[in-house]
Specification:
29% of the residues lie in helices and 26% in strands. By secondary structure, the protein is an alpha+beta fold. Among the domains are: 1-31; 61-144, no CATH class. Strands 1-2-7-9-8-4-5-3-6 form a nine-stranded antiparallel beta sheet, covered by helices on one side. A hairpin with a 4-residue loop joins strand 1 and strand 2. The protein is globular and about 50 Å long.
């Protein structure tokens, strides 16, 4: 019986070490990552209304379900910011990465999750040091660079993994709250993820963003 106790003690110690190392990796991965600034206009009990200024985004339309499109789009856009562009220049990674199921054609699709078609638009927000003219052009013709005008959005935050079921539930809850408060929704719901894939679930930050009038 003594060896069993020692085994459990070793497993427990190993688990603590893995937990600690994973947490450190997650913390270091999210340091000094640029995020788009915003101003909070209203704070309700279950959401907030934000104002965002103009943003630049690199977007790609990906066929497939939510998970497939998210990972596939991430790889395509990561390839672009890691040097596959006309300037062969690295572009700093920012947060969040956004995803949207789109019913629009690729040239005009925005960035989020909603709609019946199995097509999603995945987007990276570009660093604020760039203009649309100075941003390196992608070599991949599937990637579109787009200027997003200033806007107001309703936002709700949640942790853990942004699975499709959790995302859809959070969207329903936010839409119900906005309808309850008489706030007009002017666009589809965005899924915003702020962490790289290797971030542990207890350190992850996700948001649902819905444009409002």
């Amino acid at each position: 019986m003594r060896w069993i106790k020692k085994l459990f003690a070793l497993l427990a110690a190993g688990g603590v070490i893995v937990f600690g190392v994973w947490s450190i990796v997650g913390y270091m991965s999210n340091r000094d990552v640029e995020e788009p600034p915003f101003m909070i206009e209203t704070e309700a009990s279950d959401y907030e209304i934000r104002y965002y200024s103009v943003q630049l985004r690199a977007e790609v339309v990906v066929e497939g379900n939510y998970r497939e499109a998210l990972y596939g789009g991430f790889r395509v856009l990561a390839d672009y910011i890691f040097g596959n562009n006309t300037a062969s220049q690295n572009i700093s990674m920012t947060a969040p990465v956004t995803a949207e199921a789109s019913q629009k054609i690729p040239m005009t699709a925005p960035v989020l999750l909603a709609g019946a078609e199995n097509r999603h638009v995945i987007a990276f927000i570009m660093p604020r040091i760039y203009s649309l003219e100075s941003l390196p052009k992608p070599n991949n013709p599937d990637i579109t660079l787009k200027k997003i005008e200033e806007r107001r959005v309703a936002a709700v935050r949640f942790g853990g993994y942004a699975t499709e079921s959790r995302v859809n539930r959070k969207i329903r809850e936010l839409k119900a709250a906005l309808e309850r408060d008489g706030i007009a929704m002017t666009g589809e719901a965005q899924v915003a993820q702020y962490n790289p894939p290797w971030t542990p679930p207890w350190m992850r930050r996700n948001e649902i963003l819905i444009p409002v009038g």
